[in-house]
Write a structure and sequence with these properties.
The complex is a heterodimer of chains A (about 400) and B (about 90). Chain A is of the alpha/beta class. Chain A contains 15 helices and 13 strands. In chain A, the strands form two sheets. Chain A has an eight-stranded mixed beta sheet with strand order 8-7-6-9-10-11-12-13, sandwiched between helices. The longest helix of chain A is centred in the last third of the chain and has 18 residues. Chain B has a single domain, classed as Ubiquitin-like (UB roll) (Roll). Chain B has two helices and five strands; from the N terminus they run E-E-H-H-E-E-E. Classes of the chains: A alpha/beta (about 400), B alpha+beta (about 90).
Chain lengths: ~400, ~90
């Protein structure tokens, strides 16, 4: 039986090796090759050769075909010093990879030569467990989860819609969640506003929301904005975020938000509810309609649905808010097809979803053709229907 | 007769009915017929000049009539017409 050293020497005799200087030359010359880092996560996390794809030695055979489907690709495999990569090269050759080399001296030699390296963004071990059901989806992966952790989402309202959407956004690991709400928790809210609880009656909603959301996920930084959006503060606040989830309870805020969002090019996940019915869409996606393309102007107070008719099935905003969170995550990750350009309506009494086509209005005074969006003037519409649904 | 979906805020005009039938070969005729059976409903949909209000949309099946022939958009008996007004609520 050979000793390990004899075994290794045998393998090194069978495989090809490449010097770090040669690899550097190849990379500088733009040579097409796939570089695979087979070290463990704690080593990789300290730095890696630029462009390298990391697959730890233990998962190499399982995952290499996904990373490098063409078995004739020129492959450079490296580890810390050149031993594990030699073993890896032998194994990949047995899998049919025809054009592979092991990097002599590995990452250690690369670093000693003073060549540049990148430091990866990684999840902490706690995050790796918390978000494992996300990261195991190839459409999300570690990169997608890191993107969510860096994302900044503004929730307008910590009420019926804002409660479920903010909860799922926090659970999903959206790193920064801003909440705008100037109200305090009232016991009549608790039939649907699941961010809050009985013992928090009287507490500002933004404060209650922050307690609930950080309790659910300590990765989330909650930014409370205990105020009402107006033409003076809207640009400054919305400008800090990547995306807005609109759960407002009044037309004044919805139109103001639309106009600011166009000005600042921020997507808005829109939903509104009334009794047993909900509407949902995504506004301001590139080239797709805005709120004013659909409804150019708010109704005058006497035409707005009367507050006296108010009332809403408590679970309805739950359904709509969760759909908003779904659309928000899709927009942030660039996944699938969002509702931009489609209005989804939900009729809870009949258990029916319907879909209507929305078109950008070329004549829209806010997002239409030839409009200088930077010059949009913000309007504070007279406030009406404060009570909301 | 085409089916017209009545949004919640307008159902007080239709005795609470969510869907009603209306006669006519265009959207305009449908609205006239609606007004005949449910007086007061037209004023909620159209302004004084007869145009559809700016916070209301009418869809013939899934298409916004503003991008078809507006009030002259033809309708068949098998069509479903939806009246979709802006609603504000998020229930804060």
């Amino acid at each position: 039986m050979p000793t390990f050293q004899e075994y290794l020497n045998g393998i090194k005799g069978e495989i090809q090796e490449l010097d770090t200087t040669e690899l550097k030359d190849h990379m500088d010359n733009g040579k097409k090759l796939a570089v695979i880092d087979v070290r463990e996560q704690d080593e990789y996390s300290q730095g890696f050769i630029p462009t390298a794809h990391w697959i730890s030695r233990g998962f190499l055979e399982l995952r290499i075909e996904e990373a490098v489907p063409d078995k004739d690709t020129e492959l450079v495999i490296y580890c810390a010093g050149g031993t594990r990569s030699a073993l890896a090269a032998k194994s990949l050759a047995a899998m049919g990879y025809t054009n592979l080399v092991s990097l002599k001296g590995g990452f250690g030699a690369w670093k000693r030569n003073g060549y540049a390296f990148d430091v990866p963004e990684l999840l902490t071990p706690e995050q790796a467990i918390r978000y494992s059901r996300h990261t195991m989806l190839p459409e999300v992966g570690i990169e997608g989860q890191i993107a969510l952790l860096k994302a900044k989402v503004l929730c307008i309202g910590a009420g019926g819609l804002g409660s479920p959407s903010a909860l799922y956004l926090a659970a999903a690991g959206i790193g920064t969640i801003g909440i705008i709400d100037d109200d305090v928790v009232d016991s009549s809210n608790l039939q649907r506003q699941i961010l809050h609880s009985t013992e928090r009656v009287g507490m500002p909603k933004v404060e209650s929301a922050a307690l609930t959301l950080t309790g659910l996920n300590p990765d989330v930084q909650v930014v409370p904005h205990q105020l009402r959006l107006n033409s003076d503060n809207a640009e400054e606040i919305i400008g800090q975020y990547d995306l807005v989830v609109d759960g407002a309870d009044n037309f004044q805020t919805r139109y103001l938000l639309n106009d600011v969002a166009i000005k600042l090019a921020k997507p808005v996940i829109h939903s509104s509810i009334y009794r047993f019915e909900g509407q949902l869409t995504v506004f301001n996606a590139d080239g797709l309609p805005c709120y004013r393309c659909l409804y150019p102007e708010p109704p005058p107070p006497d035409q707005a649905p009367s507050c006296a008719e108010a009332g809403v099935l408590g679970v309805l905003p739950g359904v709509m808010g969760v759909l908003q969170a779904t659309e928000a995550v899709k927009v942030l990750l660039g996944l699938g097809t969002t509702l931009a350009g489609r209005l989804m309506t939900y009729d809870a009494l009949r258990s029916k979803f319907r879909e209507l086509k929305l078109r950008p209005d070329p004549e829209c005074k806010y997002c239409g053709e030839g409009v200088d969006k930077s010059k949009i003037e913000l309007i504070d519409y007279t406030q009406f229907c404060m009570v909301g649904g | 007769m085409a089916t017209v979906r009545i949004p919640t805020p307008l159902r007080k005009h239709t005795d609470g009915k969510e869907e009603v039938s209306a006669a006519g070969s265009t959207i305009d005729e449908l609205i006239t017929d609606l007004e005949k059976n449910y007086p007061g409903i037209k004023a909620r949909i159209c302004d004084e000049s007869g145009a559809v209000r700016k916070f209301v949309n009418i869809f013939a099946n899934e298409e916004d009539i503003r991008y078809l022939d507006n009030l002259q958009t033809p309708v068949n008996d098998s069509d479903e017409v939806s009246i979709i007004p802006a609603i504000a609520g998020g229930v804060a």
